[in-house]
Write a structure and sequence with these properties.
about 525 residues; nine-stranded mixed β-sheet; two-stranded parallel ribbon; 19 helices
Length: about 525
């Protein structure tokens, strides 16, 4: 029992800090230096020069630490080490040795230290490589043979129990850190609104905001049953928070205005939107009337009722959009950005842009899970399709950080890490199930889909922020007066329910919108 607890602690990505890896690798370099000197010079020479040798290896150690930090050898998840990780570890040692040689040649440090011969340094690097790569391989093998097997056949568990197990295995990486104290200072005592509060992002945002002790938390969504679930969870987990849950359609201007008058919101998180690409490809009018019209109305109300900050949740699908949903999000970005740059308002409009979140409603994780439970096949659209993924809590923490550090008119892009091949995700989930009879079936790209997503278009560049995970996109600026006319005209067209004309006007406002595998491709000619 105790052994199992130790193993679980050791392989926990929340506790297994990368600083431990850096410390352990540093110890290996120290030991390797002593071993290399002993092998080349003999035990008695070691005994006679022990103190000076220890001082020399300690003096050389910072050079190797620089190599580790520059090549980020300590940032990975050891149990998932790859051959590429081993090569990078070896290169970091070579870089460290090169720095040591540079200091010896140009700074003359040998005068104060025990001078290690070149062959001592070479052997030191080789021994360090052996042990650094060796312990990574041993940890990986131990995990594969003794830990991972305990998690097989996990699909007998409930969906809620499964979520943490799946996320830990499917998207392994070091935890994203944000300044929660600064975030709490920004939220505490304020009147906050979250739209789309029953959705995956909105509900998690609501819980994080509740933990920051807001003065009042107003949660809005038109989905009654999920909203009831959020309400019950809020009462159970945050009984002391002044929270109001409203079932309402955010597109209804008068209803929203009543709420703005009553609750005087100071910060608004706009997460309400239709998000499923194939559905919006079939229903472009509803995509505009829901996504764009709600954003326009809420933005206008935010100005009218002196909201301090308006944070819009966008998507990587807004970049060079190939579908109605992505273009509708880009239009929302354009409206908020142009409004912020118009100089007509005090409200700060901040847009956050990120990719898919693992485990969200309707995402690949619950879909694949259900297909595996039914015996397969697991259906993937294309063998080469890739997507950027982030965990729901990660995305929401970064949204709160963006709301704290962002300035009006900025589009803040999240660092999504490396893209993930969907077929690899499917294979890993099948492996987790413990079954070897589940087939993968390729069904072809759906209307509006593309093989890869982007978080920036070709003409955009980024600027840094105080958080390395958040960048500022330098985007094209639009004239608000022109945007206002075009957006109103588009929404008026959508209200006629003329789908072709609606999409045509979308393409006129967003010329980079080029349909893919869609009936609207003909409008691009």
């Amino acid at each position: 029992m105790f052994f199992n607890k130790v193993i679980d602690w050791f392989f926990s990505k929340d506790r297994y800090s990368h600083w431990y890896i850096l410390l352990f690798d540093s110890i290996i370099v120290m030991v390797a230096g002593v071993l290399a000197y002993t092998i080349n010079n003999g035990i008695w020479t070691l005994v006679n020069n022990w103190g000076r040798l220890l001082l020399s290896t300690l003096s050389y150690l910072p050079a190797f630490i620089v190599g580790f930090v520059l090549l980020r050898t300590h940032r990975g998840i050891i149990r998932h080490s790859t051959f590429e990780d081993l090569i990078i570890s070896a290169l970091s040692l070579v870089l460290g040795a090169a720095i040591v040689m540079g200091t010896r040649v140009f700074l003359g440090v040998d005068a104060a230290l025990l001078p290690l011969r070149f062959r001592d340094l070479v052997l030191m690097v080789l021994v360090s490589m052996f042990f650094m790569c060796g312990w990574r391989i041993i940890i990986k093998l131990f995990y594969e043979m003794h830990v991972k097997n305990k998690r097989m056949n996990v699909y007998g568990y409930s969906n809620k129990t499964l979520l943490d197990m799946e996320m830990n295995d499917l998207l392994p990486r070091t935890p994203i850190e944000v300044d929660m104290q600064r975030i709490k200072a920004n939220i505490e005592g304020r009147s906050i609104v979250v739209t789309g509060a029953a959705g995956s992002i909105g509900s998690e945002l609501a819980m994080l905001l509740a933990s920051c002790n807001p003065g009042h938390l107003l949660l809005i969504d038109q989905a009654e049953t999920p909203m009831h679930d959020v309400r019950m969870r809020m009462q159970r987990e945050f009984p002391g928070v002044n929270c109001t849950t409203i079932v309402a359609n955010v597109c209804r201007y008068k209803r929203m205005e009543v709420l703005f008058k009553k609750y005087n919101p100071q910060i608004l998180f706009h997460a309400a939107a239709y998000k499923h690409v194939p559905m919006m490809e079939d229903n472009p009018v509803e995509g505009i009337l829901n996504n764009l019209d709600s954003t326009r109305k809420l933005a206008d109300l935010a100005i009218k009722y002196d909201v301090e900050k308006f944070i819009m949740i966008s998507s990587d699908k807004a970049v060079n959009p190939t579908n109605v949903m992505g273009c509708s999000k880009r239009l929302c970005e354009i409206y908020c950005h142009s409004l912020a740059k118009s100089g007509h308002c005090k409200c700060q409009f901040i847009t956050t842009r990120f990719g898919n979140v693992l485990g969200s409603n309707g995402s690949v994780i619950p879909i694949f899970r259900e297909q595996i439970r039914k015996g397969g096949p697991v259906r993937v659209t294309h063998p080469d399709i890739i997507r950027f993924f982030m965990l729901i809590p990660e995305a929401c923490r970064l949204v709160l950080e963006a709301a704290t550090i962002g300035k009006s008119g900025e589009i803040l892009v999240f660092d999504m890490g490396n893209p993930v091949r969907i077929v690899d995700l499917a294979k890993r989930m099948i492996e987790l199930s413990g079954r070897n009879d589940i087939a993968i079936e390729f069904t072809g790209l759906r209307p509006g889909e593309k093989l890869y997503e982007e978080v920036l278009n070709n003409e955009e560049e980024v600027l840094p922020t105080s958080n390395s995970m958040i960048k500022i996109a330098k985007v094209r600026e639009y004239d608000y007066a022109q945007v206002y006319r075009q957006i109103n005209d588009l929404i008026d067209t959508a209200r006629t329910y003329d789908e072709i004309e609606t999409v045509r006007k979308m393409k006129q406002i967003v010329p980079e919108y080029k349909s893919n595998i869609s009936v609207y491709t003909k409008l691009d000619n």
